[in-house]
Specification:
Shape: flat
CATH class of the largest domain: Alpha Beta
Mean pLDDT: 83
Catalytic activity: ATP + protein L-histidine = ADP + protein N-phospho-L-histidine
Low-confidence stretches: 353-365
Number of helices: 19
Strand content: 15-25%
CATH topology of the largest domain: Heat Shock Protein 90
InterPro entries: Bact_Chemotaxis_CheA (IPR051315), CheA-like_dim (IPR004105), CheA-like_homodim_sf (IPR037006), CheW-like_dom_sf (IPR036061), CheW-lke_dom (IPR002545), HATPase_C_sf (IPR036890), HATPase_dom (IPR003594), His_kinase_dom (IPR005467)
CATH superfamily of the largest domain: Histidine kinase-like ATPase, C-terminal domain
CATH architecture of the largest domain: 2-Layer Sandwich
Function: Involved in the transmission of sensory signals from the chemoreceptors to the flagellar motors. CheA is autophosphorylated; it can transfer its phosphate group to either CheB or CheY.
Organism: Hymenobacter ginsengisoli
Structural class: alpha+beta
Pfam families: CheW, H-kinase_dim, HATPase_c, Hpt
Distance between the termini: 61 Å
Strand order of the largest sheet: 10-14-15-13-12-11
Radius of gyration: 31 Å
Helix content: 40-55%
Length: 551
């Protein structure tokens, strides 16, 4: 049995034992008052749910007992029979056997024999006499059975807000741990250093244990989409075959919550604008029903959620022409863009307009909002398309947003953290590898010209004024090697000139308090081991600022 199958079995067990306790309670209420409609309705609901869950898990006999009990309570609800006579003890015994079946699943014991019970339940359903079974138990058996009825489940349900609070406390602990480690290293006291190392191991295990508790299967979200797709397809008079995959992939529950609206928008957009209507598909030599695939998968430390359709695809040239008409870039600049760079324009704010529904199949409508949602998590949004064949959107998400890998850099004797998700490479370049073109400093990396800008200029820039035009004369002749961090966002790379690199480490990011939270160049703040506050740079915001203010 895989770890995932074991987890599903434990979740089933926890819920089934709750059902069992509730059934016993409501049966007692119904025995005291056979006219108790609320208890009767609850028993019917519990049996129905247990039947469905047991069958889904492959527990056939348990599902069959619950099914026949559901039928009996249905007959009572419809006034075909009353909760009296031999029906009463048999239903109590049936619930006890269900409890034994559930416990057998949890302990891995042999399945409970329910043959005679099923026969008697079938006789009752048909209005026939039941077959007498051997007689109430010995005193020891009765005591053992009573003890089983008082067993508690090994699983508990915890509200998400409690986990959020626990994670925040662990984050505070990690920050103080790093400060203690730094202090111990400075003092050089052997006993203190040993204690600090032990604290590091414990807090590290605690941190990842809490993060693990917050993980849920992506299916929690993906399994809600069949109904969404069905409704949109019906409204658009389209036929859609939806396939889901990767529901078992684990991801932080809060990450799923934050990308729900973005994923909903992309899926609705795929059905509404990506897939053609049946007549258009058949005219293009395709099946009348469009195919839509929503998949969750892992890639290194990230979780990928892909939405893939076999529809029209994106008309790259139409996007290029639209960008020029909107004044986003010149015709020459647009012509120089490759496909990926053109598709990146779909994510620019204000690019989407109603006429695009015809020009590029509606793709790009609202994608700037989707992109911002993904950016807020420190994720990425990729797009790939082939005209006439289809489009794939890929949401690259962190497994957890609690802890981020970061590169610490220094500028003007102050440390800043840059999330590793957006770091591309680090360089140390001499003057002769830097050139100026059109007022911009540039360098060439892997056959690509990368613009360079002093990070200081971006952080200290004011208003709408463009950045100052740069020439090679601005580079001090005796500066030695220039330290450059190349960051990547939305298929664009930008080189940031900094003072020096410090180190790479995991950080716990805290939100900025008012009024600093309005400064979009910073994605939060963390505390370093020496007690120094360290601002976390928002690479997407820095890239957008550079594009808006480039000379």
């Amino acid at each position: 049995m895989t770890a995932r199958e074991q987890e599903y079995r434990e979740l089933f067990m926890a819920e089934a034992l709750e059902y069992y306790d509730a059934m016993s309670r409501h049966l007692s209420e119904l025995e005291r008052n056979p006219q108790d409609v609320a208890a009767l309705n609850e028993l019917f609901r519990l049996m129905h749910n247990l039947k469905a869950n047991a069958r889904a898990m492959g527990f056939v006999d348990m599902g069959e007992v619950a099914h026949k009990m559901e039928t009996l309570f249905g007959q009572i609800r419809s006034n075909e029979r009353t909760f009296t006579g031999s029906l009463v003890p048999l239903t109590f015994r049936a619930v006890d056997i269900l409890g034994n079946m559930i416990r057998a699943v949890g302990s891995g014991q042999e399945a409970v024999d329910a043959k005679s019970l099923l026969e008697n339940l079938e006789h009752l359903i048909k209005g026939e006499e039941i077959v007498e079974t051997s007689a109430p138990q010995t005193e020891d058996e009765a005591e053992s059975d009573a003890a089983r009825k008082l067993e508690l489940s090994d699983l508990v349900y915890i509200p998400v807000k409690k986990l959020d609070n626990l994670l925040n406390l662990v984050g505070e602990l990690v920050i103080d741990r790093d400060r203690i480690l730094t202090l111990a290293a400075e003092l050089g006291h052997p006993a203190l250093q040993a204690t600090a190392r032990h604290l590091f191991r414990i807090s590290d295990d605690l941190q990842y244990s809490v993060m693990d508790v917050r993980l849920v299967g992506a299916g929690v979200l993906l399994n809600k989409f069949p109904r969404v797709v069905r409704d949109v397809a019906a409204a658009e008079n389209k036929q859609v075959e939806l396939t889901l995959a990767g529901q078992d992939v684990q991801i932080d529950r809060n990450v799923l919550q934050l990308i729900t609206d973005a994923l909903l928008h992309i899926v609705r957009n795929a059905v509404s604008h990506g897939l053609e209507d049946p007549a258009a598909r058949q005219a293009a030599g395709k099946p009348a029903a469009g195919k839509l695939l929503i998949t969750a998968l892992t890639e290194r430390d990230d979780v990928l959620i892909q939405v893939q359709d076999d529809g029209r695809g994106i008309n790259t040239e139409a996007v290029r022409r639209k960008a020029v008409r909107q004044g986003m870039l010149t015709a020459d600049a647009a012509a120089a863009l490759d496909e990926q760079e053109v598709w990146a324009l779909l994510f620019e704010p204000g690019f989407s307009m109603a006429e695009q529904i015809t020009d590029i199949s509606g793709r790009g409508v609202g994608l700037d909002v989707v992109k911002l949602a993904i950016d807020s998590l420190g994720g990425r949004l990729r797009v790939n398309s082939e005209l006439g064949k289809g489009t794939t959107f890929t949401l690259v998400l962190p497994t957890s947003i609690a802890v981020k890998g970061a590169l610490l850099i220094e500028l003007d004797e102050r440390a800043y953290a840059v999330p590793l998700l957006h770091t591309d490479t680090v360089l140390a370049l001499p003057n002769d590898q830097i050139f100026a073109v059109g007022g911009l400093l540039m360098t060439r990396i892997q056959d690509e010209n990368i613009p360079l800008v002093p990070l200081q200029q971006l952080l200290y820039s004011e208003g709408d004024e463009p950045l100052p035009r740069a020439t090679r004369a601005d580079l001090p002749p005796d500066a030695g090697l220039h330290q450059i961090l190349v960051v990547s966002y939305n298929n664009r790379r930008l080189g940031l000139l900094i003072d020096r690199f410090l180190r790479q480490q995991n950080i716990v990011v805290k939100s900025l308090s008012k009024p600093l939270d309005t400064i979009d160049l910073f994605g939060g703040v963390t505390l370093l081991g020496n007690g120094q506050l360290c601002l976390v740079l928002d690479v997407p915001a820095l890239t957008r600022l550079f594009l808006a203010k480039r000379p």
